[in-house]
Amino acid sequence: MKIDIPPKKFLSYEVFPLKVVDYEKRDILLTNSFTKKLVMKIKLYSVNDALRRSINRLRAALEHHKLICGPHKPIHPKMPLEGEVLEFTAWQNTQRHLIVIYADFEALLLKANERKGKNTTIIQKHCPMSYGFLVNKAPKDVPTELLREFNIPTEPVIYRGSESRQDVAKHFIENITDMNEKIEKLLETNIILNISDKDNAKHNSCFKCNLCKCAVNNHTHVRDHHHLTSKFRQTLCNRCNLSIKQPKYVPVFLHNLSNYDAHFQITELENNSKRINVIPNSEENIKFVDKIQFMSTRLSTLAVNLVTPNLEKFRETGKHFSNNEMPLVTRKSVSPYDYTDDWSKLELTSLPPIEDFYSTLIEEHIKDSVYLFATEVWNHFNCQTLGEYSYLYLKIDELLLADVLENFRDLCLNTYYLDPAYYFTAPAFSFDAMLKYTEIKLELLSDYEMLLMFEDDSHKPACGMRNLIMKKYQILTHQTHNDLPFLPQNSIPPGSIVRKLMATFKTKKNHIFHYRNLQQALNNGLIVEKVHRIVQFKQSPWLEPYIILNTEMRKNAKNEFEKDFLKLLNNTVFGMLLKILIMTIFINFVWLSFKKNDGKRSQAFKYKASFSVLEISKTLMYDYHYNVMQKHYGDNIELMYTDTAMATPRYPVMTPMTERKNIPGLFSDETDGEICALRVKSYAYIFQGREKIKAKGIR
Fold first, then answer.
1. How high is the mean pLDDT in each 10-residue block of the chain (699 residues)?
2. Which residues cross the membrane (predicted)?
3. Are 330 and 314 spatial neighbours (Cβ–Cβ below 8 Å)?
4. What is the rounded distance in angstroms from the CA atom of residue 262 to the CA atom of residue 288?
5. 644 vs 635: CA distance, rounded Å
6. Which candidate, 215, 388, 650, 667, has a CA 20 to 30 Å from the CA of 467?
């Protein structure tokens, strides 16, 4: 036997399976006689008592291990250390990002007639026609002189291709890369602190870090100053002072990156000599961010939301247009996308007729008032060709995008003291905002077996006290609970391969529940036959302050976007609590199909909290149906559809019921009492005189 000793730089080996076979190993005995060879299965070992007891313990442990780990793929779990907590640490994100780029593309819709598969015909191919971007600086933190010194433009940059110059996407990548290098050099500027006597006295009398609020003294506090202006900002502890170092990367916001603009860019990234990673890190220089990941509302609607009598919220647009032009450029115009199917169309010397503005995507013509507005824009800015109008259209879009996102950043910084420019999605932003606002420290699961116990319930969320039980329905309760059987579970329905949350009368064996759901079921006649295992931990309403904050703000919201966004912030916290990184996969763009999977697994460790969120919401639904509606109406009602976001009774406008709207845990009447529900996430209703149809995944 050879035993390898790990090198001194490694404390121990990291062992994990490279391959786990799908069949079990069996012991056999091979005997060799003079005439033939015999192979026999060994059924019984003759061993001493001590070894037999050891083998029996190992066999029991193996069966227990197979029960827990058998349903899962072989991986090497990377678990937190015992006592490790999840808390807010992103103090850098509390400072406004100094420089952000806002960009947009326009495309020609070239005609095509190409069959793709049995049921698809490609009728248009999108060819990038032009792009524009605006370098936006933090007004008080980046001197304009520095921008001029490093040759960084303050005007919108717009590039338009032509029939002989169809390199728009490539030109964009080259231009953005060059711009980023200039910005990176600018951000390396470090002007020595210039502190006034007043600020110095304020610093010396401060004994608490301005960010993390930890205690500091004259030996541990640090003067934080702005490196581009030399101004004193605040007193910090050494840890926070190091953590808020200005990142070198530049966020580039695009209007519809994921679904549209990225298709132009990906094929041109190979021309960039720098390595490209899908998963970002702090060393990367450019970070492309999709505006849709924060604001799914149309740009035209978002621009309308900014309109005030003095138009003061259009800060970027106001820098590039005069006061008398502002009414024409503070709303989104219209472009004849389907009409511009060839480069030659851009040479047209007049605005196309209204019928050429028809959209095959949404199968609609534009309104006369919209066409009249486009005509007014054309005439006022003296456009000579459709190409010039397209140039102006892109410039306005670019500036509107900048104004919308700058106001959005102001809202987030003033409310949550976090800049969304550091994040890729609203859920990631909301989760950090929640951690910061609540100051919670969530203990992470460090025991892998306990994690699998939570996970075994087919990715039901997990938190609170949880019981692994066997449950039995009495026959007499079937009719009573026929509308909504208790304790639903994720399982695969007959004829399907997808797991769904199903409320059935089947016996639940080795199933996991929150204790409140179990109590509710027992109070309604269900029987527990056996309790296998219990996990106990402390509970508190630590999420309540954040939910109340967003709910109160939603009540005072001035437009539909703010209402939807604040609702999204609350809802996505649950999604982030549930989120788990199933497999760490690194993908490189090599221009060949390549994916590396090292078989390691990194856990997000948030199951406990997400379990309670979902399970407690179920208790509210069941309590409302059985203890309120059914108790009052008896057999005169029948459950049609369930949704934790709404109910459908018809109430007069001025009643106590409507006064309780938007209160967490209570239902709101969103459909005026009538709804047509066909299946999960597929329904229709009439709201404020307009028909609203929901079909998840279908526009």
1. 48 58 66 68 61 68 73 73 87 92 89 81 84 90 90 93 85 90 90 90 89 84 88 89 83 77 55 47 66 87 90 93 93 90 91 91 88 95 94 94 94 94 92 93 81 60 37 59 81 80 80 84 84 81 91 86 88 75 42 41 53 77 84 81 57 58 66 67 70 65
2. 573-594
3. yes
4. 9
5. 23
6. 667
CB 457 within 8 A of CB 512: yes
CA distance 247 to 95: 11
84 in Cβ contact with 444 (< 8 Å): yes
Which tokens belong to 327?
């009414």
DSSP string computed for 595-621 = -EE-SEEE----HHHHHHHHHHHHHHH
Enclosing H/E stretch for 262? helix 262-266
Distance CA 366, CA 108 (A): 19
Instruction: Please identify which residue in the block is written with the tokens 């007049």.
Output: 350
Closest C-alpha to 232, from 268, 287, 195, 274: 195
Closest CA to 265 of 288, 239, 297: 288
Alpha helices, DSSP H only, in 87-192?
Answer: 144-149, 168-187
State the Cα–Cα distance between residues 192 and 502, nearest whole angstrom: 64
Burial of 114 (0-12, 13-18, 19+ CB in 10 A): exposed
Give how far Cα 637 sits from Cα of 81, 625, 628, 634, Å.
52, 10, 12, 7
8 A C-beta contact, residue 94 and residue 244: yes
Query: Which residues lie across from 103 on neighbouring strands?
Result: 133, 254
How much helix, strand and coil, in percent to the nearest 5, is found in the chain? 35, 20, 45
Roughly what angle, to the nearest 10 degrees, separates helices 49-69 and 448-455?
40
The pairing of beta strand 286-290 with beta strand 442-443: unpaired
- Rounded to an integer, what distance in angstroms lies between the CA atom of residue 613 and that of residue 567? 15
Query: How far is residue 573's CA from residue 463's CA, in Å, rounded to a whole number?
Result: 14
Q: List Cβ neighbours of 357 (8 Å cut-off, separation of 6 or more).
A: 334, 336, 338, 339, 365, 366, 371, 374
Per the CB < 8 A criterion, the answer to whether 276 and 589 are in contact is yes
The DSSP secondary-structure symbol of 444 reads: P
Angle at which helix 426-438 crosses helix 386-416, to 10 degrees, equals 20
What number of residues does the chain have? 699
DSSP state of 359: B
User: What does the alpha-carbon distance between residue 560 and residue 564 come to, in Å, rounded to a whole number?
Assistant: 6
At residue 236, what are phi and psi to the nearest 5 degrees? -130, 160
Residue 70's Cβ-count burial label (10 Å; 0-12, 13-18, 19+) is exposed
Rounded Cα distance between 394 and 378, Å, is 13
Whether residue 560 contacts residue 297, with contact meaning beta carbons closer than 8 Å, is answered with: yes
The answer to whether residues 357 and 334 touch, using CB atoms and an 8 Å cutoff, is yes
Q: CA 253, CA 292: separation in Å to the nearest integer?
A: 10
Q: What is the pLDDT of residue 275?
A: 45
* Phi, psi torsion values for 258, nearest 5 degrees: -65, -40
Pairing type for strands 466-472 and 442-443 reads unpaired
What was the pLDDT predicted at 469? 45
**Residue listed under structure tokens 């083998």:** 55
Q: Tell me if 299 sits within 8 A of 401, measured CB to CB.
A: yes
What pLDDT score was predicted for residue 270? 53
Structure tokens belonging to residue 7:
């090198």
Helix (H, G, I), strand (E, B) or coil at 496: coil
Nearest to 572 by CA among 610, 620, 611, 607: 610
